[in-house]
Design brief:
Blueprint: E1 3-7, E2 10-13, E3 18-25, E4 34-39, E5 46-51, E6 57-59, E7 67-72, E8 77-82, E9 91-97, E10 116-121
Parallel strand pairs: 2-10
Antiparallel strand pairs: 1-3, 3-8, 4-5, 4-9, 5-6, 7-8, 9-10
């Protein structure tokens, strides 16, 4: 069974930092892209950042230069270091594996659990 366990969310003032973690089970990070998504209240599911199975990374324009995705293969954990946080970063953050592991019907912001909440205040 493939499971995602995100953590590390919280409340921070604008300009602050948080580091999110996502511990995966039932897969190896060598075989799966891992992606962070976020969903603000009453909005759609937005792709934030991806780290591919070969270690290459992708960032949405809205977070590029502020967020860094990384992974620890031994711990089967993906991280999202979030710096210079803005109020518009406020959202529930989710992590999701490659679609081959499932989740395609519900979508990545619903299929893998409740996510971890990030609140950035002015």
């Amino acid at each position: 069974e493939v499971r995602m366990v995100p953590s590390g969310g919280g409340s921070v003032q604008a300009g602050g930092s948080l580091r999110l973690s996502c511990t995966a089970s039932g897969l190896t990070l060598y075989d799966s892209d891992m992606t962070w998504y976020r969903q603000a209240a009453w909005t759609g599911c937005e792709l934030v950042s991806t780290i591919s199975s070969d270690g290459s990374t992708y960032y949405s324009d809205s977070v590029k230069g502020r967020f860094t995705i990384s992974r620890d293969i031994a711990k089967n954990t993906v991280y999202l270091q979030m710096n210079s946080l803005k109020p518009e970063d406020t959202a529930v953050y989710h992590c999701a594996p490659d679609p081959k592991y499932g989740g395609t019907m519900l979508g990545p912001c619903a299929a893998w659990g409740q996510g971890t909440m990030v609140t950035v205040s002015s």
